[in-house]
Write a structure and sequence with these properties.
MetI-like fold; globular
Length: 300
């Protein structure tokens, strides 16, 4: 008599061999290439940006002793408020001047043929290849006594004294240095505007000025505001040009921070002023974003 072995089926949902895991059939997940490629720059930025900013914020409340004494001293000093006012005013003037000068250039680049636009765009970018220090010294020569700007303006003003070491000199030099930023930002936005919109407005009877003001300009306003805000934020913390071209009355907060570090060695007050400057930049950016309803300035 032969015996037949009958294979018994495991009960539904049961495990034929308890204690042994059933192979899932899925390979272990490996980090995607995009996650690795983005993770390394993020880690680098955290190391070289987040850590210094955190250390600065910590020093503002720990040196020379723990507490808010530095903030109390800074906020009750009239000289600090004067310097902050000068810094904000000059940064706003530079932002407005750069936006007004950069928008026509960006419009001309946007409507130019591709080959001409590339050549002109190269001319806009070339100043980035020159050191800010060299360009600032060039403005010292141009705006000084007997400089080119002084000789050109002397028939109109009747004065041969240069414009150097004044607020106007700082605004002119900073506008020249930061002008490529709004040009590049606005030009990139104008390239995305559909030209058929203005042509349709012209077809429906609108004149060129009305079509530009009612169709083209509103679409470009977000880019104009974003470019101006970028120039404004950079201008708030700019150091080299105001230190070389400006005078004692036009000292910016960056110059005062440098003096606290290099001359008085007051690191606590320097960190406090840097923290106040950071808070001021964030507050004004959020305020402009709220008033103009332009998205993309700050993401929260």
């Amino acid at each position: 008599m032969t015996t037949r072995a009958f294979a018994t089926r495991p009960p539904p949902g049961g495990d034929p061999e308890p204690g042994r895991r059933r192979p899932s059939g899925r390979r272990p997940r490996r980090p995607a290439f995009a996650a690795v490629a983005l993770g390394l720059p993020v880690a680098f930025m955290m190391a070289v940006y987040a850590y210094p900013v955190g250390a600065m914020l910590l020093r503002s409340v720990t040196e020379p002793e723990f507490g808010l004494a530095n903030f109390a001293r800074a906020t009750t000093d009239p000289a600090i408020w004067h310097v902050l006012g000068v810094t904000v005013r000059m940064a706003a003037e530079v932002a407005v001047a750069a936006a007004l000068l950069g928008f026509p250039v960006a419009c001309f680049l946007a409507v130019s043929p591709p080959r001409r636009a590339r050549i002109l765009l190269l001319l806009v970018v070339i100043p980035f290849w020159t050191s800010v220090l060299v360009r600032s010294f060039a403005w010292i020569v141009l705006l000084g006594d007997g400089g080119l700007v002084t000789r050109l303006l002397s028939p109109l003003t009747g004065d041969e004294q240069g414009l150097l070491y004044s607020e106007g000199a700082v605004v002119v030099a900073l506008t020249h240095i930061l002008l490529p930023f709004p040009i590049l930002i606005v030009k990139a936005a104008l390239d995305q505007i559909d030209g058929s919109l203005t042509r349709a407005a012209r077809t429906l009877g609108a004149g060129p000025v009305r079509a530009f003001a009612r169709i083209y300009l509103p679409l470009a306003v977000p880019a104009i505001v974003s470019g101006a805000m970028l120039v404004f934020v950079i201008g708030l913390g700019f150091y080299v040009t105001p230190a070389l071209v400006g005078g004692p009355r036009e000292s910016t907060i960056a110059v005062v921070i440098a003096q606290n570090v290099q001359e008085t060695f007051d690191w606590g007050m320097a960190a406090t002023l840097a923290t106040l400057l950071l808070l001021l930049a964030v507050t004004l950016t959020l305020l402009v974003r709220k008033l103009t309803r332009v998205k993309g300035l700050v993401s929260l």
